[in-house]
C-alpha cells in the first residue's frame, strides 16, 4: 500500500461513509408508510450521458425527489433505484463506490473482494443481471482477468466479455488516490428504450429526442408535427412526456411508417403516422405550433447532393405549416448546409440549442421561429 492514512480498506465512497441514512432522523432502510419513494441507505450514483447533454441530464436529475449532494452528474440517493432507471436523458445510471487502493490489483485482497461482491450483489438484486463484463483500460491484463474470475465465482454469474449485462467499470478515483468501481444498475443502457421494438438505420438516440423536446418546450396546447419521422423516436419520446393538443408524424417510406407505428404501439401511445411526402403535405397553412424534425444527415440516410435540394424545400414548406408563434426544432448533422440555407432564405430566426456527440456523429439541434 502506498503512503496513505491508515484505513480499513472498506469501500470509501469519496471519503464518505459507505452508507448514509435516509435523513429526517429515520433509521436507514425505514420506509414511510405509503411512501412510494421507499427510503434505503443512501448510495452514490453517477449518470453517463452523451457529451453535450450534461445540462439536460442535470436538470432532469434535479427533479428526482431525494437526490442530493448533486455534483455534476454524481449524487447520493436513498430512494428506490427503480426511480433512477426512469431517467430519460441519461445513457446509463451507475452505482459507484471507491476503494482506497493504489491499483486494481488491490481489489484482489480477501477483504476487498468480499466488499466488492457484497456491493455488486446489491446491484444485481436491483437489476436482475444474468451475466457480467468488465469495462476498463487494460481489461485484458492478468489482474483484470483474475478479477473477472473472482467476480464470476463470487457472484455466480457468467463472464461475457462482449455483452455481459452487469457492466463493471474501473477507473482511478476522480478526486483522490483510490480506484472507483462503477456498476451499471440496469442490464441494458437506459437509452435502449423498452418501447423500441423496431430499429431503422439512422434511428435517433432516444436521449437526444428527449433533450430536443425538453429544450423546444413542452406545452399541452401544442399541435405537433414530426415530418420525416423514421422509426418514430421523436414521436414516442414526446408522447411519453405528457399531454399535447395533437400530434402527427409522416415519412415517405412505408417501412418507416410501419416501424414508427410498431414502436408507438409498444409504448402504448396512440399517435397518427402516415406515408406522406413532408415537402408536399397538402395540409393547411399554419397547422402546427411545434414542428420537430430529424433531417437526413446525408450518410446513412439521404446524400449530401439530395440534401442540397431537400433542405431548402423542407424549410420552405415548414415555414408555411408553422403557426405565427410556432417553433421549429431541427436536428441535423449537415450543419454547414443547414446554416447556409437558413441565411439564404432569411425566413427564420433562432438559435442553436445544443451540439451532441453520439456514435461518431456530432449533430446540432436548432430552435427556430418565423421572422
Ligand atoms: C434521419 S431519418 C429520421 C430518423 C428518425 N428520427 C428515427 O429516430 O428513426 C430521416 C427520415 O426522413 C425520411 N424522408 C426523407 N425524405 C422525406 C420526405 N420528402 N418526406 C418524408 N420523409 C422523408 C426518410 O425516409 C427517413 O426515415
TrEMBL record:
- Is Transferase one of the keywords UniProt gives this record? yes
Q: Which GO terms describe its molecular function?
A: methyltransferase activity
The record's section on InterPro entries has:
RlmKL-like_Mtase, SAM-dependent_MTases_sf
Mind telling me which SUPFAM superfamilies this protein's record contains? S-adenosyl-L-methionine-dependent methyltransferases
Enumerate the spans annotated as Ribosomal RNA large subunit methyltransferase K/L-like methyltransferase domain: 193-363
Renumbered to this chain, region (Disordered) spans: 1-41
Pfam families named in the record = UPF0020
Basic and acidic residues composition bias: which ranges? Answer: 1-22, 32-41
Q: What are the alphabetically sorted keywords of the record? A: Methyltransferase, Transferase
**Where does the source fall among the domains of life?**
Bacteria
Q: What does the entry give for GO biological process?
A: methylation
**What is this protein identified as?**
Methyltransferase domain-containing protein
Organism in which the protein naturally occurs = Deinococcus taklimakanensis
